[in-house]
């Protein structure tokens, strides 16, 4: 299983940050799988942002729920996340993650660095 994040490396404050995770070698509709976005701000711990399930249900971190959405494109086998009204505090390394409740497997993308700055 391979996951590859893509998106802009630099975003202006107040804009919307869009990231996509392209998935290879497993379908994002595979039963029991969840597809998650996590970020790691500099000098801080990992922050769980939200996920989309194999069935298309979404769950978000309460602290980000008002600003974020996760969607998927099953024809491209990828899932995406939008974070609106970004501030410099949204500067982080962003990762996508895949987990299977069926066999316990867990996979991570290599991460993509995003800086919010004018």
Describe the protein.
With 118 residues, the chain is mainly beta. The chain has no helices and eleven strands. A hairpin with a 4-residue loop joins β5 and β6.
Quickly describe the structure.
This protein is an all-beta fold. 0% of the residues lie in helices and 53% in strands.
Secondary structure: elements and pairs:
Elements: E1 2-6, E2 10-11, E3 17-24, E4 33-40, E5 47-53, E6 58-60, E7 68-73, E8 78-83, E9 92-100, E10 106-108, E11 112-116
Parallel strand pairs: 2-11
Antiparallel strand pairs: 1-3, 3-8, 4-5, 4-9, 5-6, 7-8, 9-10, 9-11
Q: Return Rg in Å.
A: 14 Å
User: Helix tally?
Assistant: 0
Task: Bin the strand percentage.
Answer: over 45%
Helical residues, percent:
under 10%
Largest sheet: 7 strands, mixed
What's the rounded overall pLDDT mean? 96
Number of E-state strands: 11
Element order: H for helix, E for strand: EEEEEEEEEEE
Q: What is the global morphology?
A: globular
Which labels suit this protein?
118 residues, four-stranded antiparallel β-sheet, globular
